[in-house]
Design brief:
By secondary structure, the protein is an alpha+beta fold. 47% of the residues lie in helices and 7% in strands. It folds into two domains: 2-80, Glutaredoxin (3-Layer(aba) Sandwich); 85-190, Glutathione S-transferase Yfyf (Class Pi), Chain A, domain 2, CATH 1.20.1050.10. A hairpin with a 5-residue loop joins strand 3 (52-54) and strand 4. Helix 1 runs parallel beside helix 2, helix 3 (88-113) packs antiparallel against helix 4 and helix 3 (88-113) packs parallel to helix 5 (153-162). The radius of gyration is 17 Å and the shape is globular. The protein binds glutathione. Residues 9, 11, 34-35, 48-51, 63-64, 106 line the site of glutathione (GSH). The site of glutathione has 11 residues, from loops.
Amino acid sequence: MKLYVTPTSPYARLAMIARLEKGLDGIELVWTRTRVPDDPMLAFNPSGRIPFLRLDDGSGFEDTDVIVDYIDALAPPLRFAAPDGAGHWPHRRRRATARSMLDGVALWARETMRPETERSPGIIEHERRRAARLADLFEAEIGGPAYRGPPDMPQLFLFCALDVERRLPEFDWRTGRPGLAAWHARVAALPSVAGSLPPAGV
Ligand SMILES: N[C@@H](CCC(=O)N[C@@H](CS)C(=O)NCC(=O)O)C(=O)O
């Protein structure tokens, strides 16, 4: 089984963290690039999106949620599913909100990578404001018990969203948000998170 990743994709980072959290480092990482027109990967991953999990029979999955669910099911007990009972909908809310933040900042980062003449200041400003509002929301709730345990999907989406700052320095979520900064530092130091940083030179 092979997990196709890039060094900059926050979605790939999330899948790589899940892989290590589950002790599945036997899943081989394939460091690749996206948007390469004649990439052989397109033969089995036509969308060209990363992360992509290729199974030994040649089939595979795109989409971070599906890949994490698959990895999770490979090594029970489940770690990343929404809990049953009273915690279910609060978990789903946190997960959806954190994923929304990641989708927005990923779009913002992508926009800044376009040639300057093709960039949309309107899109960048829209995403900057969205990210600031969501960062305020998470700053308000980050001290709660939901953010203290081992990383679940809401926390992983939130961490990977905030971590987009490494390629988008203008995403300044730290100023005025000490709780979020302290939480990010704690998660960044976890072995699965530190161990999923891309090696130098890839
Ligand atoms: N919905 C996808 C989003 C993944 C995604 O957007 N990946 C980006 C890299 S951050 C990508 O592969 N872009 C390549 C392209 O647009 O061709 C998921 O959850 O995995």
